[in-house]
Specification:
Blueprint: E1 9-11, H1 17-28, E2 35-40, H2 52-64, H3 69-84, E3 95-99, H4 108-120, E4 126-130, H5 136-140, H6 152-156, H7 162-165, E5 167-168, E6 175-178, H8 187-192, H9 200-208, E7 214-218, H10 225-233, E8 236-242, H11 251-264, E9 270-277, H12 284-297, H13 310-314, H14 322-325, H15 330-345, H16 350-354
Parallel strand pairs: 3-7, 3-8, 4-6, 4-7, 8-9
Antiparallel strand pairs: 1-2, 5-6
The structure holds adenosine-5'-triphosphate (ATP) and magnesium ion.
Adenosine-5'-triphosphate binds next to helix 4 and helix 13.
Length: 371
C-alpha cells in the first residue's frame, strides 16, 4: 500500500462479524483487499485555504483507480466531509417528530439520537426528548439519567418545564437532550388519575417550541400513556422498520392507534416518514421486507437505508452516537444521508420563506451554530 493511503484507512484488524461477512462476499466477487469498511478516520476540518488531508489523499487515490475498496473509502470520507460543511434548511415551523414503533429493538432510539446529532451538526437547533424509562437515548447523548435526575418525568407531572431539564449535549452545539430516568416507569400509573393526562407533553412542548427547529421524541416499545403523550404532542411520526422477519407485524396496531389519536386528540398528526433500519445486504429477506415497506408507504420511506453496522451498536457504550464515534462508518454515512433527506423534505417553499415569521425567524438566536 502506498504511503499516501495509510492515513485514510487502517488495516482490517477488528472487523465486526457483519462486516467480515461483507468482505468475504467481496472476495468471492474477485475483490480480495481485506480492508475495514469501518475504519475511515475522522479528520478535523481543515483550516481555511487548506484543502485538507482528505482531498490530497483522495486525489492521490484517484491517480490509481476508483475501483478499489481503498478508493471507495477515500471517496466516502471526502463525501462525508463535504456534507458536514453544509447548512441544512430550517423548517418553516418547528418540526415535532415522534419516533415510534411499539415493537422493541427496531432502532427507534438509534434513529432518534443519530438524526438529532446529524441535524444539529448542520446548523439546526434540536431538542431530543427521551420518553423511555430505559433511558437509552440519554445514554447515547452522554447525559446523566440516574434516578432522581431532573427529567421528562418531572415535566409530565408538571413540576418542571422542558427548559428546566433540557441538558446541552457535547456532541453538537444547538443540541439539547431531555433525559429519562427509571422514575418514568411509574408515570403511566401516576398520570392515570391526572387531568388531561394525554396532553401533558404537548403542553410542555408548546412552551419550548419557539426555541427549536426540530423536536425529536424517542418512544418506549409500547402503546401506553407515554407513547400516547408523544403522539398527541407530535406533528409527524417517523416509524423505524427493521428489515427482519415480523417487521410489519404490529404495524397495523400502531397505525390504528395513530388513526384513533387523529380522530380524537390530534387531527393533524401525520405519518410522514418511514426509515428502514438494520438492513443486511446479504439476506434476500431484507430486500423483500424493504420492497414490501416501499410498496405500502411509498414516498414516505427515506431513500437512505440504514445498514446493520457494528459501529452503530458500539457507539452508545462510549456515551456517543455513531455520528461522532465513527463518522466515516457506513452506519454514520447512512444516518447522515437520512437526516439530510429529512431536512430537505422540511425545506420551506419560496412562498413560505417570504412570509413573516417564516423559516429562520421562528426560533431564538444563539442556537444551532455551525461546527
Ligand atoms: N444499524 C444498526 N446496526 C447494528 N446495530 C444496531 C443498528 N441499529 C440499532 N442497533 C442496535 O440494536 C439494538 C436495538 O436498537 P435500539 O435501541 O435503537 O432499538 P429501539 O427500537 O429503541 O429498542 P427499544 O424498543 O428497546 O427502545 C441496540 O443494541 C442498538 O445498538
Ligand atoms: Mg429505544
Amino acid at each position: 500500500m502506498p504511503d499516501n493511503e495509510t492515513p485514510l484507512v487502517a488495516a482490517d484488524a477488528d472487523l465486526g462479524s457483519d462486516d467480515a461477512d461483507v468482505v468475504a462476499a467481496e472476495e468471492s466477487m474477485g475483490q480480495p483487499d481485506r480492508v475495514s469498511r469501518e475504519t475511515v478516520m475522522s479528520f478535523p476540518p481543515p483550516p481555511p485555504g487548506n484543502s485538507g488531508p482528505l482531498d490530497s489523499a483522495a486525489a492521490a487515490v484517484s491517480r490509481e483507480t476508483f475501483d478499489t475498496p481503498i478508493a471507495r473509502e477515500a471517496m466516502r470520507a471526502v463525501q462525508v466531509r463535504n456534507v458536514r460543511n453544509e447548512v441544512w434548511p430550517k423548517p418553516v415551523a418547528t418540526r415535532i417528530i415522534t419516533v415510534a414503533n411499539q415493537k422493541g429493538g427496531v432502532g427507534k432510539t438509534t434513529t432518534a439520537v443519530n438524526l438529532a446529532v446529524a441535524l444539529a451538526h448542520h446548523g439546526l437547533s434540536v431538542l431530543l426528548i427521551d420518553l423511555d424509562p430505559q433511558g437509552n437515548a440519554s445514554t447515547a447523548m452522554g447525559v446523566a439519567h440516574h434516578a432522581g435526575t431532573p427529567s421528562v418525568y418531572d415535566v409530565l407531572l408538571g413540576s418542571s418545564s422542558l427548559q428546566d431539564v433540557a441538558i446541552p449535549v457535547e456532541a453538537a452545539p444547538g443540541l439539547r437532550c431531555v433525559p429519562a430516568t427509571i422514575d418514568l416507569a411509574g408515570a403511566d400509573i401516576e398520570l392515570a388519575s391526572q387531568v388531561a393526562r394525554e396532553h401533558r407533553l404537548r403542553k410542555a412542548i408548546s412552551g419550548y417550541e419557539p426555541q427549536a427547529d426540530y423536536i425529536l421524541i424517542d418512544c418506549p416499545p409500547a402503546l401506553g400513556l407515554l407513547t400516547l403523550n408523544a403522539l398527541v404532542a407530535g406533528k409527524e411520526i417517523l416509524i423505524p422498520i427493521q428489515c427482519e422477519y415480523y417487521a410489519l407485524e404490529g404495524l397495523a396496531q400502531l397505525l390504528n392507534t395513530v388513526e384513533l389519536v387523529r380522530t380524537q386528540l390530534n387531527a393533524t398528526l401525520d405519518v410522514s416518514t418511514v426509515l428502514l433500519t438494520m438492513y443486511d445486504s446479504r439476506t434476500r429477506l431484507a430486500d423483500q421486507v424493504a420492497d414490501e415497506v416501499r410498496q405500502h408507504f411509498g414516498a414516505k420511506v427515506i431513500r437512505s437505508v440504514i445498514p446493520r453496522n457494528v459501529r452503530v451498536s458500539e457507539a452508545p457504550g462510549y456515551g456517543q452516537t455513531v455520528m461522532t464515534y465513527d463518522a466515516g462508518s457506513r452506519g454514520a454515512v447512512s444516518y447522515l444521508e437520512a437526516a439530510r433527506e429529512l431536512a430537505e423534505r422540511g425545506r420551506p417553499s419560496p412562498a413560505e420563506q417570504d412570509r413573516p415569521g417564516g423559516s429562520s425567524e421562528h426560533h431564538n438566536e444563539g442556537q444551532g451554530t455551525q461546527e
